[in-house]
Amino acid sequence: MIQRRYFLRGLGTTMALPWLESLSPIRAATGLAADSPTHPNRMVFVYVPNGVIKNKWTPTSIGTDYELSTTLQPLQAVKDDLLVFTNLSQDNGRAKGDGGGDHARGTTSFLTGAHPYKTDGAAIRAGISVDQVAAERIGSETPFPSLVLGTEQGGRAGNCDSGYSCAYSSSVSWKTATTPMMKEVNPRLVFERLFGKGAGNAERRKLRNSDRLSILDVVAEDARRLQKKLGQTDRRKVDEYFQSVRDLEQRIVRAVPLKTPPPGIEAPDNLPEDHEAHIRMMYDLIVLGLQTDSTRIATFMEGNAGNNRAFAEVGAKEGWHSLSHHQNDPQKVAVLEKIDDFQIRQFAYFLERLKSIEEGQETLLDHCMVLYGSELADGNAHSHHDLPILLAGRGNGTLTPGRHIQCAPETPLNNLFVSMLDRMGTPVDELGDSTGSLAGLEV
């Protein structure tokens, strides 16, 4: 019997494999009940700054007969895997006497439901985030308790938004009330984290890079031994997995070419210049992390609070944050709609990748809960009620997607997080400003 968690090894590299029938334990041997899930549940949080154009976001009908709105149209292929929510709010993103700073405050409260202490010094304080609650409980079951990723690093000190520390603007994931998680923004370094392990790994990685060896070249001998033990279906799955790894590896190398520096100088780890390519690489890395059970929890920030990059991809000449203060200017609103469409197309790419991966009779997406949202509903009004929130996947059979759920006004977003933690097997009585669990997630 082959072990469930199987790794390929070579030259200081450890490469985890995806779920394979040949590697799954026999129920009788493990004591699992007949109706016990054979796959772990996973949880992913995707944060996008600056809000959305709400009248193009919200579906006009509720329930199972809802139609995707204009902005959500790119999600048509996964419509039946989606829950669209209205009226979820983050009350602690509001000022509450602290004045300006809605972007930083909203970003910090997004996954914590906590009101951050207003400071641009060292005395930062917020609350533990939903992802880190789960990571604290079950993170030891996987090589990485969680992946915390982004496209923009951001600072840890200084004033980034009306007196709020830059730590608030650049973090949605908080390990404790005073410790924001440092996110990784370089796809090459994330790839190395997922596929490199052991003492002296940095030196071995340099040797591998100097010879331009693929990760698959390094583990080839171990892979050949494994293939002999697998059935035809699993051999096909391994081949598909290897192809996806190699494809991502090549994209990373093309986007950030390996350089040979002078002796004693480290090669720079520049970020991809193509923003869409950068986002999709990070999504693909999350897919690999989940697929191989390297982690079951991930967060991804597609920009920090108040991100002001110019989206040349959609012809935007003005910065994103500047555009979000559109004051109902039709031309600015039209550009923002294109930016919203761009972001949703990337999210659709991610969900379709998850749905393309088989796990038994279901898919990886079926065994996930993937939340997408922003710290603001309307960037122009800085509103923290009726946030744009999507939840994709079936949560290992604990969610009934394919619906638009209209909650009562001012329902705490953290009620949804409490419900998600229940489904991860990491229940809590409360989180942030939660008032209970969110009803109606399964029918």
Model description:
The protein has 14 helices and 15 strands. α6 runs parallel beside α11 (275-291), α10 packs antiparallel against α11 and α11 (275-291) packs parallel to α13. It has 443 residues and is of the alpha/beta class.
Draw up the topology in text.
Elements: E1 7-10, E2 13-16, H1 27-30, E3 42-47, H2 54-57, E4 82-89, H3 102-110, H4 130-138, E5 147-150, E6 159-161, E7 164-165, H5 166-169, E8 174-176, E9 179-180, H6 187-195, H7 201-210, H8 215-218, H9 220-227, H10 232-255, H11 275-291, E10 297-301, H12 320-324, H13 330-355, E11 358-359, E12 362-363, E13 368-373, E14 389-392, E15 403-412, H14 413-423
Parallel strand pairs: 3-10, 3-13, 4-15, 5-10
Antiparallel strand pairs: 1-2, 4-14, 6-7, 8-9, 11-12, 13-14
Helix pairs in contact: 6-11, 10-11, 11-13
